[in-house]
Amino acid sequence: MSRLLRLAASGFLLCAAATLHAETVDRMVLSSDGVVLEVSSPASGIMRIRMGRRHLPEDASWAVSRAARSARLPLQVTRGGGAVRLSAAQIGVRIDPKTLRLEVLDAGGKVLLADLAGRAALSTQGFRLRARLNGDDHIFGLGDKTGTFDRKGGAYTMWNSDAWKFTQATDPLYKSIPFFMAVSDSGQSFGLFLDNTWRSTFDFGKTERGVLAIGAEGGPVDYYVMSGPAPKDVLQQYARLTGTPPLMPQWALGFQQSKWSYRSDAEVRAIARRLRSERLPADVIYMDIDYQDRSRPFTVNRAAFPDLRKLAGDLRQEGMRLVLITDPHIANAPGQNYAAYDSGAAQDLFLKLPGGQYYSGDVWPGAAVFPDFSRAKVRNWWGGLYAGFVADGVAGFWNDMNEPAIFNVASKTMPLDVVHRIEGDGFAPRTASHAEMHNVYGQLNSRATYEGLMRLRPDERPFVLTRATYAGGQRYAATWTGDNVSSWQHLKMGTQQLVNLGLSGFAYAGNDVGGYAGERPSPELLTRWFQIGAFTPLFRAHAETGRPDQEPWVGDPVQVEIRRRFISERYLLMPYLYAAAEHNSRTGIPLLRPVFLNFPKVLANGDRLGGSEDQFMVGEDLLVAPSPTLESPGDYKVELPGKGWYNYWTGQRLSDRSETVTPDIAQLPVYVRPGAIIPKQPLVQSTAIIPSGRLELHIYPGADCRGDIYADDGSSLAYKRGSFLRQRIRCEETPSGLRVQFDQREGSWTPWWNGLALHVHGWNGGTPAQAQVTGVKLATSFDPAQMVLVVQASDLVRGLVEIER
Fold this sequence. Notes:
The chain is an alpha+beta fold. Helices cover 19% and strands 29% of the residues.
C-alpha cells in the first residue's frame, strides 16, 4: 500500500481510501509515495507542517522552544470529497492525501495559504514550496531587508552577510529571519515562519506572478502558519513560538553615543563631559575595537585605558554606562599568553576543518579562530569570559562581526564545510556543516553572551547588541541595521528597516544615527536623523573611523539646539516608552509600528499603504510623519487614520483627517491619537537620575480613551517578583466635562513622583474649571493659548477624577 493515513496519536493505520469517521487526535501523519507529512497545532491559531522523505525531520529548533514545539492542541479530523480536514482552535487544514497538497484555513474556512507543490516540494537537494498569493495581500517581515517596504514582488535570500555600505538593492544582509506576515487591504492577516537555518529564498511573485515560492538548499521542511486574523494577532502568535524580547534595562532606551573609535581613556571622558556640558541627555558610551590590545577580544590596551574599572565607575557617577565590543573571532595566538585563546584551545572549543585542524580566518586581530557556539559547553565558556569586564563595572556588550565575517575571501565568511558539533535544543548530538549553522551563528553568539551575563549578574537585566542573528534571537539581544551610509536615502530606508524588524520579533532595534559610512552628513541630514532617531527604540549615534566628527554638538548652534530639543523630548517621554517596552516584553507587539498595525483599515485607502508608507507609530498613540522626500523642501500631505487627531507639539486638535505640511528643519510632524493618555516626566540628563516632582498625564479626549503607567527599578529582575507598578487610566467625555478613571494599581513598586498633573488638551470649557476626586477639590489652571487645562492631584492608587466646565 503506497498511501497510508496514520493516526499517530491513536496508534493505528488506515488506507487512504477508507472511510474516516470523526476523530480527535493531537497530530496527523500522512504518507504518499515515500514522502511523510505531519500536521499539528501547537497553539490557538497556529498550524505546524513538517515534511520529509521516508521519515520526518528531527524535531529540534534554535528558534522555537521545546515547550512550544511539543504543545499540541486537539485536531478534529473529518473526511469528505477526497480530502482530509483538520480543525483546531481558530485554524484548519485541508489535505489531499494523494498529492499531500494542503490548504491552511482560517476559523471561518477562508483559504489563507494554498500549497501548489505537496510532496513534489522535496528534491534530492533541499526543497521548494509553492503557494498562491492573494491579489490584495501586502507582505512584511524578513527582518531588515532593504528594497521596498512592502515585500510583495520581491525576492530575498536568507544568508547572514557582512554588507558594509549596503544599498537599496543589497541582498542578503546581516540577519536571517525567515518569517513574514501577509496583510490584505481589509486588514486580515496571516503569518508564516520557516524554521530552517540553511541558505533559503523567499520569492513573493517576482519570478512567477501570483506565486509565493520558498526554497532552501538543505535542512527540514518545518514551518508554521499563523491565522491572525489581525496583524497584532499574528505577531502574538509568532511571539508564542519564538519568544518575546526580555525587558531591557531602562538605560538602554536612553541616548547612546558611539564611534569607531574613542581611542583613549581621556577621549571617552571628554565625550562624557561634552555631553553633560552641552545638556545633551545621554546614558551610554560605546567603545569599539581600539580599546583592545591588538584588536584581540577580551583584552584591554592598558597604555590607552590604564584603569577600565575606574573609567566605568566614574562614568556611572555621571549617569552613564559603558558598553564594550566583543567580536567572536579569537586571535589565533598559541603560546602568547592570550587567555581567551589558551583556555578555548585547552578545552577544544574552536571550529575545525574536516581534516581536524582549526579553521583560521583573517579578521581584525589578523589570523583568528572561532568558537563553536552550537555546543553548550562553548557557550558556557564564552559567557564566562565576561567575568573581568563585569567585575570592572561594564554595563553591556556589543557582538559585532558575527555573521561570521571573514576578510580577504570572496565569500566574506568561512568555508561551508567547517565542522560544528551540535548540542542541545532538542538536537541529537551530531556534527553539522557550516552551511547548516551559518545563519544561526550570530544568534548563538549573542545567546552565549546573554546567558553568561545572567550567570555573572543573576538579578540584573543584560544588555547585548548583535549585528547578525536568526529568528528567536530577540530573546537574547537588541540589534541594529549595520553599516549604513550618511545619505537621505538611508535615513528613509532605515526607518522602514526598523519597522520590518519590529514586525519580525525584534522590537529593540536602531540604525546608526547620522550614518556609519560614506561622506560626512550635512548639518540638515544629521539634525533630521537625530529627530527621527529620538522616536526609534534603540537611539545610538555611530560612525566609522577616518570621518569628521558627527556627535550631536557638531556644527551650527541652531542645529545643535534642535538636536538637543529632540533628545530631551525622548527623555520627557521615557515613561511612555518604558510602558511600551514592558508591553512588548509580555506580548511581542513592537514599540515601533507601521500605522496599519494599530489601524489595519488604512490599507483600504489606496496606494502606499493607504498613504501611511512613510509614517510610523511609537506605541499605541504617537504617529510620526516625516516627509516622503526627506531631502526636499516641498510641501506634503499627511493622511491620518481618522479624524480628531492632535498635534503633539501644540496640543491643537485637527479639524480634518489630513493636513498639508511645509517642511521645517526645526520641526518633525508628530500626532497623537484621539483618546490617548500619555505619561511624561520632568527632564533629566540620564535615566540614572530619579526625576523629581509630578508625573504628567497628557490626556487627549476621544473615543476609547486610555493609557498605561508602568514603572519599576529599571535594572533588576525584581519586577518578575512583583516589584513593579502597572496602572490603566481611562477617560470619558461627559456633557459637563471629563471623567478620568484610575484603575486599581498592580504591583508593589513605590513610584518616584509625589503627585500627578493631568494636562487635558483641547479643553474648551475655559476657567475656572472644577475638579475633584472623592469629594476633595483639586487645583486647576488653564492656558487659553494652548487650550490646556491642568489639574493637580495626589498620586492615585485608585480613584475617579471628575472635571466640570
